[in-house]
Amino acid sequence: MENKLMIFNMKMYMDISDVKNYLNEIPSLPDNVIVCPEMMYIPYFLTRYQKISLQNIYSINDGAYTGEVSARHAKKMGISYTVIGHSERRTYFQETDNVINEKVKIALENDLKVILCIGELLEDYEKGNTEEKLLSQIIIDLFDNKKINSDNLIIAYEPVWAIGTGKVPTNEEISKTVEFIKNSIKERYGISVKVVYGGSVNASNIESLNSINNIDGFMIGGASTKIDEVDKMIKVVNG
Ligand code: PGA
Q1: pTM for the full model?
Q2: The one catalytic residue among 95, 120, 158, 229
Q3: Spatial contact of 56 and 83, defined as CB atoms under 8 Å apart
Q4: Active-site residue, selected from the candidate residues 86, 88, 120, 229
Q5: Ligand 1 centroid to 158 CA: how many Å?
């Protein structure tokens, strides 16, 4: 059986000393790890690791768009993935599902694999609206997209209330929601996608989360920037 995926979402946590130390202490990573560094450090990370992802892209390939990053240019640099629709982008940068839909399209047109983040807010969860919220994200984010297939799309299921909070749904809840996501995508688009769980995954809880049968891996934020946790988490997942 393939090892579960481990997506390291490093957000904006590391300064250059942290990056250099990380790359010295972890000179290589196994094949099932995808690293998403802060954008300007990507050339450093490319010298060490195979699978590098952007944390976000723009929806246009080239032009006068100060401060944005192009999927086409990323692909040419040897970057193979991009995260799209992270809840921090949705919340702090007002990214709507329609914007996310355009970004997924441009990424796939440029042969970048997409890690699409979806997840419910605490109020959705408390009102029992999790599935409704996820379905609406799935429908709009992937609307009219002829390029998606089971190899170029990964869904990261990240309950917004679990990100950076230390709170995690129960294994049963995660398993049920992941089943719902897989079935919804299969029904609508006829493809089987990998679904990873994200939200407060760390070296202490990954062993229990790893026992959930239907998840295909993890998206790990804070803990992925801590060298000792990385080591422990890889040992649990890869055995
Ligand atoms: P966290 O972040 O592991 O720090 O909760 C996960 C994410 O936002 O991808």
Answers
A1: 0.98
A2: 158
A3: yes
A4: 86
A5: 8
CA-closest candidate to residue 87, choices 163, 194, 20? 163
The answer to whether 38 is a known catalytic residue is no
Which domains does the chain carry? Answer: 8-238 (3.20.20.70)
**Residues contacting ligand 1 via CB (< 6 Å):** 9, 158, 163-164, 198-201, 219-223
Report the SS3 class of residue 170. Answer: coil
- Tokens standing for 224? 């992925």
Residue owning the nearest CA to atom 7 of ligand 1:
221
Average pLDDT in the 204-212 region? 98
Question: In angstroms, rounded to a whole number, what is the distance separating the alpha carbons of residues 138 and 117?
Answer: 10
Q: Identify the bridge partners of residue 64 per DSSP, sorted by sequence position.
A: none
Q: How far is residue 197's CA from residue 35's CA, in Å, rounded to a whole number? A: 16
CA 55 – ligand 1 centroid, Å? 12
Neighbours of 213 (CB within 10 A): 8
pLDDT at 2: 85
Nearest CA to ligand 1 atom 6: 221
> What is the predicted pLDDT for the residue at 1?
72
Burial 58-89 (b: 16+ CB within 10 A, else e): bbeeeeeeeeebbbbebbeeebebbbbbbbbb
Q: Mind listing the pLDDT tens digit for each residue in 50-97?
A: 999 999 999 999 999 999 999 999 999 999 999 999 999 999 999 999
pLDDT reading at 149 higher than 90: yes
Task: Look up 158 and say whether it is catalytic.
Answer: yes
